[in-house]
Design goal:
Elements: H1 3-9, H2 34-41, E1 46-49, E2 70-73, E3 78-80, E4 83-85, H3 90-99, H4 130-139, E5 145-149, H5 153-158, E6 168-170, H6 181-191, E7 196-202, H7 203-209, H8 213-219, E8 224-229, H9 234-239, H10 255-259, E9 263-267, H11 270-281, E10 287-292, H12 300-313
Helix pairs in contact: 4-11
C-alpha cells in the first residue's frame, strides 16, 4: 500500500497539510523501511484505497494487517473488517470520506524525508552493491522521470528510493509479471511524453522481454534501461535453491547493436554508474546500462523478505 497515493486520492481540504503523512511504501517485509512497517501495522485504522491484495503488495504475504482494523475500498466493493458491501459506488464512498472529519494522530518519523547523499570522490571507485544502485539512481531523478521497476530485487530495492524531487513510479502487481518493465516503459513514454522512463530490470527478467528495445528504437523513444546483472534469478536464489535459478549469460552490451539503435555501457563501480546516468540524461536516444552486481548481494528489503519467508516455511539456514 502506498501511503502517498492514498492521501492524494482525497481532496486537499479533507486532510490538512500538517496532517498529511508521506511516510513511504508499506508492503510487509518489502516496506521501504521498518519504521513505515511498524507505523502501519500498529495503526488503529488502515484505510486502503484501490489496493490490490497480491503477493507483491503484501510483500510475499509477510504483511501483518489486522482485518478488524482495516477498510478496503475498490471500484468493485467496500470491505470493512470482515464485512463486504457490494453496492457502494467507489466515487460515493470517496466523496463521503473526503467530507468526514477524521482525527489523525501526529506522527514524527524517526527517519524523515532524507535527500540522497551525493557520491564522494573517494567512493567513486568502490564496487557497486545493490543498495548503491538505488541511491545513485535517486540522485538523478526529478519530476520529469518515471521509475519503471520489474519484479525481483528491482522492485524490492526501488521501494526504498528517496529523491530530492518528486518522480513517478510504476511497477507490476504480481510476481508472475516478470518481464514487465521494458515493455511498460514503452507505454509510459507514449502516454506521458514529458516523462523519461528509468527502467530497473534484473538480468533474468530482461531475458524475457528485453528485445522490446527493438520497438523502442523503431518508435524513437529514449528510456534509460538499467539491467541489474547478478548472474541469474537473485530473488529465487534467496528463497529456493536449484538449477532453475541459472540463466544463460548474455552479452548485454551488444543489445543495441542487435536492434541497430541506442547506446550501451557497462558499470561496475559507483563512479561508472553515476557517469553513465549523467550521459544518458543528456541524450535523446535509448541508453542501456548493464550494472554488474556481486552474485549474492541483495537489497535490504529482499534480505528481510527471504528471512521471513524462510521462517514461515520452517526452513533452517542453508536448507533452501
Amino acid at each position: 500500500m502506498n501511503i502517498p497515493i492514498a492521501a492524494d486520492l482525497l481532496s486537499k481540504s479533507a486532510i490538512p497539510e500538517n496532517h498529511r503523512l508521506y511516510i513511504g511504501v508499506y508492503g510487509g517485509a518489502m516496506s521501504s523501511d521498518e519504521h513505515v512497517r511498524k507505523y502501519v501495522e500498529s495503526a488503529d485504522l488502515v484505510l486502503m484505497l484501490v489496493t490490490f491484495i497480491t503477493d507483491m503488495s503484501m510483500g510475499f504475504y509477510t504483511a501483518k494487517l489486522d482485518r478488524r482494523r482495516t477498510v478496503l475500498a475498490t471500484t468493485e466493493r467496500v470491505s470493512v473488517q470482515y464485512h463486504r458491501y457490494e453496492s457502494i459506488p467507489f466515487r460515493d464512498f470517496l466523496a463521503a470520506l473526503a467530507s468526514a472529519k477524521i482525527p489523525l494522530k501526529q506522527f514524527n518519523h524517526p527517519n524523515p524525508h532524507v535527500v540522497p547523499i551525493p557520491l564522494t570522490k573517494i567512493e567513486r571507485r568502490d564496487r557497486l552493491a545493490m543498495a548503491d544502485v538505488f541511491r545513485i539512481v535517486s540522485l538523478h531523478l526529478d519530476e520529469r522521470c518515471c521509475v519503471v521497476a520489474d519484479v525481483g530485487d528491482a522492485i524490492f530495492g526501488a521501494v526504498g528510493i528517496r529523491s530530492a524531487r518528486q518522480a513517478q513510479f510504476i511497477a507490476p502487481a504480481y510476481y508472475m509479471s516478470m518481464g514487465f518493465a521494458v515493455p511498460a516503459s514503452i507505454g509510459v513514454a507514449m502516454a506521458a511524453k514529458r516523462l523519461r522512463p528509468y527502467v530497473l530490470v534484473g538480468d533474468g527478467a530482461f531475458q524475457m522481454t528485453g528485445v522490446e528495445i527493438s520497438t523502442i528504437v523503431r518508435l524513437g523513444l529514449n528510456p534509460i534501461v538499467l539491467i541489474l546483472n547478478n548472474d541469474g534469478y537473485g530473488t529465487m536464489r534467496k528463497i529456493s535453491k536449484g538449477c532453475f535459478n541459472v540463466i544463460t549469460r548474455w552479452n548485454y552490451g551488444k543489445i543495441c547493436e542487435l536492434v541497430s539503435g541506442g547506446k550501451t555501457v557497462t558499470a561496475s563501480t559507483k563512479g561508472e554508474l553515476d557517469r553513465a546516468l549523467s550521459r544518458a540524461r543528456n541524450a535523446r536516444e535509448v541508453h542501456v546500462i548493464e550494472i554488474k552486481i556481486p552474485r549474492n548481494d541483495v537489497s535490504v528489503q529482499l534480505a528481510r523478505i527471504a528471512r521471513e519467508v524462510a521462517r514461515v516455511r520452517g526452513w533452517k539456514k542453508g536448507s533452501a
